[in-house]
Specification:
- This protein has 18 helices and 4 strands.
- It has 339 residues and is mainly alpha-helical.
- The protein folds into 2 domains: 164 residues, no CATH class; 121 residues, no CATH class.
- It has a 4-stranded mixed beta sheet, with helices on both faces.
- The longest helix is centred in the first third of the chain and has 19 residues.
- The radius of gyration is 23 Å and the shape is globular.
Length: 339
Amino acid sequence: MKKWLSLLILLTVLAACKRNPLRVNVSDIDVTVTITRFEKKLFGPPADSVLAAVPQLQKEDGPFFRRFLQLINVGTPGTIVFEQYFKLFLTDDLNREVYRKTEEIFPDLRPLEKKLTNAFKHYKYYFPQRQVPDVYSYISGFNASLLIDEGILGIGLDRYLGKDIIWYDRLGIPKYMQRKMVPEKIPSDCMYALAMTEFPFTPAGSDTIVTDNVINRMIWEGKLLYFVKAMMPKEKDELITGFTPAQLKWCRDNEAVMWGYLIEHKMLFKTDYLTINKLTRDAPFTSFFPRESPGRAANWIGWQIVKNYMERHREVTLPQLMADTHYQKILNGSAYDPQ
């Protein structure tokens, strides 16, 4: 009996050691995300009513409204040019057709509000002093998927209508990008964009200057993916990365091969932007790797490096990780070796 009890205790300890450190209790954190449906304010009423309501929009939605007007490039309220251009935007046949499609695809944003509420609860858990932004939805003539500024987060619903939307083909958006322009991608895209904004890439450490090179970009991108997973620990890796299940499996199956290729060809410390972009920017596949690879496969490796580092250094907090620009230190501390 004592042997069985000892074994049970050992298994419990091992399970605790393997517990996902990103699964934290956020039930007592007071955050509720409510999305202001700005597209309804613009395309619900007649255009003349919206023009007359501009002062009210400035009062109610000032910071977002100003950024939105910059996004659609209609000028400044109070000028003749603004009234003319803004009315053209509001009455444009395509914009109104897209609005109707948006209403069809997104009749209710409560499921999205629920996911963002949970994500921002995690955000406040790790960053209690930071502000949860006011969240808006909008359509902007396909100009931008997300609009982020101090205290605001805008979601361009017209960029998330689903793959194979005819307008995306007409705009010349590649299929590999259209595949990710789906409603379920919105929450992870929001948190990734937030991380990019709040923790931008910097080639400077606190005590030394480092250059922008492949491995630094990989690890920075890996930190962003790690941040998204921390905000949404139950989200599928496919949604966080934007990979298909087959692409994600390919990365897992070929992790050691990819890492070996980068080392063998001395690519980790290359500083030319062409090489950096080929490995870390979105594309149909990752240059230097087979066509079965997803674009940005090198960023996935960066994520594995960061995960290894955090597993080996449990004392490091998420804020400390995100603030750390010593990418080489993170690489060395990860002891990364996918053999």
